[in-house]
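Example record for the data management plan.
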Amino acid sequence: MSNTKYKLSYDEVRVIVIALVELKNQLIAEGRYTDPVDELLMRFVD
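Corresponding structural encoding:
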């Protein structure tokens, strides 16, 4: 896996986090596994 780093603005990170939260909510509603989304959220929130 590549360790490429990108510099994102606050607004870009905010949009990504909102999209991931919506995806997580959709997966929960479908009764599906959410761990990969949780890992991505942790990377963007840190």
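Summary line stored alongside the record: The two ends are 20 Å apart (CA to CA).
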